Hints:
The chain is of the alpha/beta class. The protein has 2 domains: 3-146, 3-Layer(aba) Sandwich (Rossmann fold); 159-222, Orthogonal Bundle (Arc Repressor Mutant, subunit A). The chain has helices spanning 19-29, 49-64, 84-96, 112-124, 149-152, 159-166, 176-183, 187-199, 214-219; strands at residues 3-13, 33-44, 73-79, 103-107, 132-137, 142-146, 203-206, 209-212. The strands form 2 sheets. The protein has a 6-stranded mixed beta sheet with strand order 3-2-1-4-5-6, sandwiched between helices.
Amino acid sequence: MCLGGRIDALIMTLGFEPGPLVSSLAAHASEGFRPGAEVIVLTPSFKDERAERAWRKLQDIFSMMELAKSNIGLKRVIVSLEDFTEAVLQIKQLFAGLRNKSVRISLAGGMRALILATFIAYLLTDWVEVPEVEVYLEGRGMALRLPKLAAALGPKLDKRKLAILTVMRPGIVYRLGDLCGFLSRDRSTIYRHLKDLLEVGLVEREDSGFKITNLGLLLKDLV
């Protein structure tokens, strides 16, 4: 783990076992935490001795890690799940204070409602730098990195930009002139739109043209 790295905050959801969170901590430590960074653990408000035991174990493990010796904080946020909308609002308020930071989100365990509320809050936050999100695969000992849906669904992409996706087919490379002809718009406008689509991973460059990505295919029907 190194200070002066990329991460200001690592958000994790906790279930009954601290193991997935420890693995996530170790994986993200390779990126490096910035001085004063926080590890924020979300837990549900419902009392459960298994969850409390997992939290205590995580605290013990964290205190023995190099992170604790490097001014990296460990913080617990208890999320009320009595009302799902209020849970989303609570987490979204937390995220709003981090929207200008470099954040990573690890859905490492916990109640499905907590994981879902965390993901919805991520989608609804107007991030300056959209976080990487990963979900832990139970029984596999690994995490699956999710596409940056918050960027793709954000206000930066209006229907005019997303309309480019409607004329693109999977596996086909389109030149700028082709797209201008299909959409009857000038080259500078289409190129600006493609740059935004590239930035959020809805299209990719190939040879001298552009190709729709799987994420682009996923969202094109929303136009």
